[in-house]
Amino acid sequence: MTSKHKLIREYLKKAQKNCPRKLRKHLDNGLKYSLSEFCDSQGDVTMEEIEEKFGKPEQYAAEYLSLCDTEVITKRLFNSKRTKLTVLLVVIVFFIATAGTMVYIIKWNENSHLTYIYDMMGEVYHEKND
């Protein structure tokens, strides 16, 4: 891997740290293309030259977020919360169903199996009366 690709990955990684997880792919698409074009147009490029052209990665991420439509940001973040909530509810329902099944099986086993009760006092009592 060439040093250009390493610089691009490093810059992207730093920019991603300051961007919400659900918006990182969106940020990557545009920035990766721009960085590749800039690096290809230059001979040997350094991180300082990239930061001079695009700004610090933290600043780039902040500007990107400020330019994004608030409706898009809200929708993506809300979908993330909804997905987490759905997974949590499915897990809770699974555990409740498992516990209910276990209780049902235990009760069914108690009711369906024969139990033997030996009444020793009754047998002794019957023997004395004969």
Can you describe this structure?
- This protein has 130 residues and is an all-alpha fold.
- The protein contains six helices and no strands.
- It has helices at 3-17, 24-41, 47-54, 57-67, 70-112, 120-129.
- The radius of gyration is 34 Å and the shape is elongated.
Number of strands: 0
Low confidence ranges: 124-130
Helix content: over 70%
Strand fraction: under 5%
Shape summary = elongated
Q: Helix and strand string, N-terminal first?
A: HHHHHH
Radius of gyration: 34 Å
Q: Please summarize the sheet with the most strands.
A: none
Q: Compute the average pLDDT.
A: 76
Summing up helix and strand content along with how strands pair, one would put the structural category as: mainly alpha
How many structural domains can be distinguished in the coordinates?
2
Distance between the termini: 102 Å
User: How many helical elements?
Assistant: 6
